[in-house]
């Protein structure tokens, strides 16, 4: 077995003059091998490589086309959104203006109703004061009248005797009788 392995090791040392053999120069053999491999790849792989590149090109073009379509859609949506935003801003401004005018109107209504309420309260106060004054005046009148009546009764009782008392009663009865005849 040793002879077989020795024969492979020493194959590189055989003379190559005019015969077929192994080239042991690594640099020269690599260039030739690479040239052969590249040539075979170009010849047989040209179609495959061309197909791969065409497929890649088509995918890139489709991606660009899709991106352009999406960009167009995004621009349309952006325009629509801006239009809606302008519309909403205008509505918000209108609500704000209407709200301010409504607030001012409500404020004026509140001020007016407050003034009316204050006027009514002032009128009620004045009426209450007038009523209390009239009540106080009436109470004073009643007291003065009672005192005057008591004073007059006291004076009459001290001045009247029985005969004068009977004459006054008869005169009053006569007056009532005359009044009764007039009404009948």
UniProtKB/TrEMBL annotation:
Topology of this chain in the membrane: Single-pass membrane protein
Recorded superkingdom: Eukaryota
InterPro entries in alphabetical order: ATP_synth_b/b'su_bac/chlpt
Keyword vocabulary terms for this entry: ATP synthesis, CF(0), Hydrogen ion transport, Ion transport, Membrane, Plastid, Transmembrane, Transmembrane helix, Transport
GO CC terms, sorted: proton-transporting ATP synthase complex
Swiss-Prot/TrEMBL GO biological process terms: proton motive force-driven ATP synthesis
GO molecular function: proton transmembrane transporter activity
Record protein name field: ATP synthase CF0 subunit I
